[in-house]
Amino acid sequence: MKTQCQECGAEINVPDDIMVGEILTCPDCGGNFEIASKSEDKIELKPAETIGEDWGQ
Ligand SMILES: [Zn+2]
User: Fold this and answer.
1) Is the model's pLDDT at 53 over the cut of 80?
2) 4 alpha carbon – ligand 1 mean position (Å)
3) How far is the CA of 24 from the centre of ligand 1 (A)?
4) Could you tell me the distance, in angstroms and rounded to a whole number, from the CA of residue 47 to the centre of ligand 1?
5) How far apart are CA 27 and CA 8, in angstroms?
6) Which residue ranges form the domains of the chain, and what is each CATH number?
7) Distance 3 CA to ligand 1 centre (A)
8) 40 C-alpha vs ligand 1 centroid, how far in Å?
9) Are 18 and 38 in contact (CB under 8 A)?
10) Tell me, what's the pLDDT at 52?
11) In the chain, count of helices (H) and strands (E)?
């Protein structure tokens, strides 16, 4: 299964047995995305909160 990076649009390979809540890393831009939902043929991502981000504090 594949999905598209929200950051750079690259295709990311998704293991068939991935679970909601797991983190995917884009091989192109290194962005981290959490699996927001999963159906038979579609994966939805949301940006993962990662260490090193600017939290504005
Ligand atoms: Zn990317």
Assistant:
1) no
2) 8
3) 10
4) 11
5) 10
6) 2-47 (2.20.28.160)
7) 11
8) 23
9) yes
10) 63
11) 0, 5
